[in-house]
Amino acid sequence: MSRGTSSTFVVNVSNDTTAQNETPLAVNPLNDQNFITGGNDWNYNDGCSVNATFDGGKTWTKTLPNGFLPGITRYTNDPGVAGTGQYDFGGDPAIAFGPDGTAYYACFGYQASSPFGVALLLSRSTDGGRTWLKGDSAHPLTLVTLFQGNGKARGSNGQFADHEAMTVGKDGTIYITWAQFHGNGSNSPVYVATSTNRGASFSAPVKVTSGTTRSDQDQRIVTTADGATAYLVFDNSIQGGKGTAMFVSRSGDHGITWTTPVQLGGFSNPVCLFPPSCFNITGGSFRGPGTYPAPAFNNANGRLYVAYADISGGQAKIFITSASASNLLAWTTPEVVAPVASGDRFASEMSIAPNGRIDLSFFDRSYSGNALVDLTYASSSDFGATWQSTRVTRSGYDPSQFGVPSGSTFSPFIGDYNGIVSLPASAAMTWTGPGTTHGTLPTNLEIYFGSVIP
């Protein structure tokens, strides 16, 4: 492994006054200068934010006052202007482009009172993310799934759908997957719904689960280059901890049916950043991305790769494993990505370039004696045999000292996932970091975008 001197630039995307976190990233297949990102928006709208760029990430559409997804909440970011949605707050953003350049944005809407409904909604943009469906009666968002909590939707202790992820195959099939915490015991199945008509409607959700033990979650889908085959990867706390084993399932009929999930690997000590339930790295506690297996299919060698965080030797590290598309029962021995002597690493995101180059981003505390969080980009041009890495951020920060509004104080929550996409000659990534404090509380987490030429 070598620390590289790649060409890098970083931009503050949101550049506003109140926090955003959880930052998906998508690039237009018809225009590689057009990216879209989003986030949980903690401004007055309290829904899903959206920002677009048309110059490769140098400049972005503004977060305030109109940089949010319409049709989710009853609010806008102007207290004097009503929103077009019916929900009290929204979150868990997911963004993807279709092969024709149509952009799709999925976001949950939540009711804060009985019946505590949770709706997963899809919006579309045909102008690269500048504008989206209004969400009114004449321009409604598409309902993917609806769940009524009946008074039991109380965060992770009750009945609700959670943490959707989305991808679009080259054939235009839209895949959306989520975990369903149903309140009927400690287990939760994973569901997948698909659309073959550009998001106008979705199939009935298909349940894909590894059994009735504990919680299936952290689910993501990737497809082969031609879109003919899709792979679903998730984890399951089968031994009582969060994310103790990883599973994979495959669909060859555009998500109509899925194979019985098989275990692709396990963890020594999965990174769990979910206080007060768990926080198992050093320093002040905060909620952030932990294990979260990140899949990507490498069309250059026909293998499915999965990257994840695990604690080994007292240190959180990024591991990678792979299997041939023809045999998902045989996975390589996990290898540490770009190993360093000290400093926890977690929150891995992975993408693979058309030429087979593997791109990873992850939070990294190795630049500061394991004290501050930075973002690192690592790449391999030989299918993971060797790696080079680059520090993307210019300085680190302590996530326990920044967060999102929470009553009269703040909650140190930097989001559960980041974003990355691969281009032929570069990689682009998004993540959450601190911004200028407005007022007395450090509640201005920002979305950052970085572009790296390996």
Would you mind describing this structure in some detail?
This protein is mainly beta. It has one domain (2-453): Neuraminidase. The chain has no helices and 33 strands. Strands 1-28-27-26-25 form a 5-stranded mixed beta sheet, with no helix packed on it. Strands 2-33-32-31 form a 4-stranded antiparallel beta sheet, with no helix packed on it. Strand 27 and strand 28 (388-391) form a beta hairpin. Mean pLDDT is 93; it is low at 151-157.
Span between termini: 14 Å
CATH topology: Neuraminidase
Which strand-content bin applies to the residues?
35-45%
Q: Within the largest sheet, what's the order of strands?
A: 1-28-27-26-25
Helix content: under 10%
Give the second-level CATH assignment, the architecture: 6 Propeller
Largest sheet: 5 strands, mixed
Radius of gyration: 20 Å
Q: What shape does the CA trace take?
A: globular
Which structural traits does this protein have?
Neuraminidase, 33 strands, globular
Itemize the secondary structure elements and their pairings.
Elements: E1 2-3, E2 7-12, E3 20-21, E4 25-28, E5 31-41, E6 48-53, E7 89-97, E8 103-110, E9 117-125, E10 142-148, E11 159-168, E12 174-182, E13 190-195, E14 206-208, E15 216-223, E16 230-236, E17 245-251, E18 262-266, E19 273-274, E20 278-279, E21 294-298, E22 303-312, E23 315-324, E24 335-336, E25 345-352, E26 358-364, E27 374-380, E28 388-391, E29 404-406, E30 409-411, E31 419-422, E32 427-434, E33 445-453
Parallel strand pairs: 1-28
Antiparallel strand pairs: 2-33, 3-5, 4-5, 5-6, 7-8, 8-9, 9-10, 11-12, 12-13, 13-14, 15-16, 16-17, 17-18, 19-20, 21-22, 22-23, 23-24, 25-26, 26-27, 27-28, 29-30, 31-32, 32-33
